[in-house]
Amino acid sequence: MKQILLKYTDNGDNDFETFLQINTHKIFNGRKFLNDDEVNYLLPSDKAEADREAISYAIRRRLFQRYFFSPIEEKLNTGATVLDIGCGPGLWMRDVGLDHPSSTFIGIDVDTTQFPPHDRHPSNVGFLGCNATHGIPFPPETFDFVHISMMCTAFTESQWYQVVRDVGRVLKYNGWVEIIVADLLIKNLGKAGKLVLETCMYPLIIIRPFEVFV
Ligand SMILES: C[S@@+](CC[C@H](N)C(=O)[O-])C[C@H]1O[C@@H](n2cnc3c(N)ncnc32)[C@H](O)[C@@H]1O
């Protein structure tokens, strides 16, 4: 069974539609993708993509030498409520959650197949399956910190406006939002790098015009 949120209301009287979904994935060019007309996500949902995401996260962690850039450390130490939109397998939440046991971390993602089992993540970290473009299913002023990372292949321009506006609704006064997106026009590439870039740009430009404004 699959449940989608049709309408979010602040009083908790949310409108859901439940239906039977047999094929959660479809195969394209030998790769598995989410089979959901409501989702624009361009990247696959399979083991190879999970491996790529884990490597990408490890590189960013090494490169940045920190988990976030916002001045939120003090608040995280005393107890903050954090939302990670498009959390994937929750690697970022696992690391920040372990460092900040007084804070609560909630990850939302449309692809619940990536979520780790309950005994494989810190107890202050939780996961919720939902499409962020249907509205963030939390009351106003819930979060001290909202983190959105590597979501440039997930939303159209109008969806970015919608999601960012909704982030403003769920963010507490004086809260912080951190959005990290990659610059896809990488310079000084070698032969293999150029091939990878061309392969990645094809779906972005041809299948859905690339419209990120962040
Ligand atoms: C490239 S991954 C990034 C994962 C993680 N944030 C990171 O930085 O490693 C993008 C994630 O966005 C999720 N996603 C795509 N469209 C979404 C939507 N409409 N609502 C919620 N999550 C979405 C995908 O399932 C995927 O897990």
From TrEMBL:
Annotated GO biological process: methylation
Methyltransferase domain location: 82-175
The residues forming a coiled coil are none
Listed GO MF terms: methyltransferase activity
Top-rank taxon of the source lineage equals Eukaryota
Q: Which Pfam families match?
A: Methyltransf_25
- Give the keywords, sorted: Methyltransferase, Transferase
**Keyword Transferase assigned:** yes
Instruction: Give yes or no: UniProt keyword Methyltransferase.
Output: yes
Identify the CDD domains for this entry. AdoMet_MTases (cd02440)
- The protein depicted here goes by the name S-adenosyl-L-methionine-dependent methyltransferase
- Tell me which species this is from: Gigaspora rosea
Q: Highest lineage ranks of the organism?
A: Eukaryota, Fungi, Fungi incertae sedis, Mucoromycota, Glomeromycotina
